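Tokens as discussed.
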């Protein structure tokens, strides 16, 4: 598998890496963390490439018991210890801040890690093999670490024997004080990650994550190629896949290009948003919604709480949009449409439920970027009243007609300018709201 990916276009498709991520639950027979370690280690040595390595981060509890035992039993790891300061959660109800920063609330924690060497060519496999096996066998009794992360890198899933550089997305992720599991989202390399964390005083949880880099298709291709069957068979050796996702990430050159365009795009958004604020009446009025005037702002029995799917489809399907609803990340309900440049327009009506505020989010999404506006149309600005009454499906449809009218304006004035800044996305970029 080559480190250089084929194809390039306005969005920098040639500076793209694609990874398939698998979250794996250990098999029923793997009742211990040591059993999981042995299973991962066996596959690692089956698929280890020339640049393979084993890296770790072990975070002790505040008691210091794990660190003390580790330095007695496994001397090879004691040179990798760093003492970090952590702030305890503040449970004082009179405290005005979420965390207490008084000196008595600061505790020192031992972190053992060699993660800073991950981006070197390979790792000292033999040096840490036996040591980490002992750590796995001693968790949680002998070595009750609060968090454990062991990364087996350089996995040659395709058995191509080609060297592939890891992709770093953050310069801070490897630091010792990054003791949580979120660091897993900050680097990408074909690897198997074995992780564990303490749930409470007597319970630990562990699992496996596999990252498989796949070939980037040409920009004109409409599909990302699936993995060979043998790769899935390797994944199955690790356990049951509970969740998988596709990560498309930019390399350093592409990230710099995006940063350079940020200010230019922001200036366009401010200009369009300002124009909407002053000329909202000129842009719309296909229908007139009934404004709410006087003190009785929300009279009983005036709210429409029925399904909006058919109404959204009635208004937006003729305009080329398709309906989407998702509960994975909060509540999302809206419509999307692909542009001629393979970017996506998303209209988010998630906040348009129950008591109506006349607002929706307009977003334009590219392969590595997302820009948009929150469009709000206050009744007091249009009618001198305090809000809107949405009594029935007809009023709700009229509300969406307002949104459609504004959307037409943004499609004509905002979308072309943003696409000129960021360029087109590849044809295989498929909108996915996870």
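Sequence:
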């Amino acid at each position: 598998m080559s480190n250089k990916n084929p194809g390039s276009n306005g969005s920098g498709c040639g500076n793209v890496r694609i990874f398939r991520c698998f979250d794996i639950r250990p098999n029923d027979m793997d009742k211990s963390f040591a059993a999981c370690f042995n299973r991962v280690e066996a596959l690692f040595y089956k698929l280890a490439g020339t640049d393979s390595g084993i890296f770790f981060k072990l975070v002790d509890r505040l008691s210091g018991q794990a660190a003390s035992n580790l330095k007695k039993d496994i001397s090879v790891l004691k040179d990798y210890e760093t003492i970090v300061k952590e702030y305890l959660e503040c449970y004082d109800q009179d405290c005005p801040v979420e965390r207490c920063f008084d000196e008595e609330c600061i505790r020192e924690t031992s972190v053992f890690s060699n993660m800073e060497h991950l981006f070197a060519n390979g790792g000292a496999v033999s040096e840490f093999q036996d040591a980490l096996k002992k750590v796995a066998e001693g968790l949680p009794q002998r070595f009750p670490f609060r968090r454990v992360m062991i990364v087996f890198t350089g996995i040659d899933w395709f058995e191509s024997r080609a060297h592939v550089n890891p992709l770093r997305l953050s310069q801070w992720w490897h630091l010792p004080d990054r003791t949580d599991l979120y660091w897993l989202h900050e680097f990408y390399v074909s690897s198997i990650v074995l992780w564990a964390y303490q749930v409470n005083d007597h319970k630990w949880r562990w699992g496996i994550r596999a990252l498989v880099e796949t070939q980037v298709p040409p920009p004109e291709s409409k599909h990302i190629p699936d993995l060979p069957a043998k790769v899935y068979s390797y994944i199955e050796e690790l356990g049951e896949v509970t969740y998988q996702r596709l990560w498309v990430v930019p390399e350093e050159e592409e990230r710099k290009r995006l940063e350079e365009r940020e200010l230019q795009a922001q200036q366009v958004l401010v200009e369009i948003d300002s124009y909407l604020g002053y000329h909202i009446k000129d842009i719309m009025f296909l229908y007139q919604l009934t404004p709410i005037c006087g003190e009785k702002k929300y009279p009983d029995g005036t709210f429409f709480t029925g399904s909006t799917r058919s109404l959204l489809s009635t208004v937006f399907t003729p305009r080329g949009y398709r309906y989407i609803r998702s509960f994975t990340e909060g509540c999302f309900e809206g419509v999307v449409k692909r542009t001629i440049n393979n970017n996506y327009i998303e209209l988010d009506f998630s906040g348009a439920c129950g008591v109506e505020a006349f607002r929706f989010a307009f977003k334009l999404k590219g392969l590595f970027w997302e820009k948009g506006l929150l469009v709000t149309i206050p009744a007091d600005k249009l009618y001198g009243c305090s809000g809107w009454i949405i009594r029935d499906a007809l009023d709700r449809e009229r509300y969406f007609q307002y949104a459609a009218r504004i959307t037409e304006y943004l499609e004509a004035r905002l979308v072309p300018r943003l696409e000129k800044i960021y360029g087109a996305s590849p044809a295989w970029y498929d909108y996915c709201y996870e």
